[in-house]
User: Which sequence fits this backbone?
């Protein structure tokens, strides 16, 4: 009988660096249309990411990250998350997050593009503040 494993490989990569490279029991991430959960032996998947909290459970511990867009691929028990921006919750300072939130509120809405930019910046800042306060 074949042995089964309860973990899968998870990598979070930005253009600057590899943020995370580990074996995980579960991962939750913000897809463009809602939250997506991944467990071992999941069927192949490619998904566009949104702005939100990435939760990775490894060895009974949870790691939290802010991610902003990109793509996720699950293939052959390997999850790859490619994103323009990722930040570990422990790296976020509450004061910096509050300043970011204030700046997002100050973005002037002139057209559809500026509304979308303000909404995205506001969402990202809210998540940063929430993660900073929970760390």
Assistant:
């Amino acid at each position: 009988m074949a042995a089964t494993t309860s973990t899968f490989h998870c990598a979070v990569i930005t253009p600057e660096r590899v943020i995370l490279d580990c074996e995980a029991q579960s991962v939750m991430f913000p897809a463009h249309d809602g939250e997506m959960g991944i467990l071992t032996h999941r069927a192949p998947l490619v998904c566009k990411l949104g702005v939100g909290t990435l939760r990775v459970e490894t060895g009974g511990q949870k790691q939290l990250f802010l991610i902003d867009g990109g793509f996720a691929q699950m293939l052959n028990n390997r999850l790859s998350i490619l994103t323009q921006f990722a930040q570990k919750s422990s790296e976020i300072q509450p004061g910096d997050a509050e300043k970011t939130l204030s700046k997002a509120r100050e973005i002037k809405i002139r057209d559809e593009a500026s509304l979308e930019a303000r909404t995205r910046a506001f969402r990202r800042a809210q998540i940063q503040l929430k993660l900073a306060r929970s760390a």
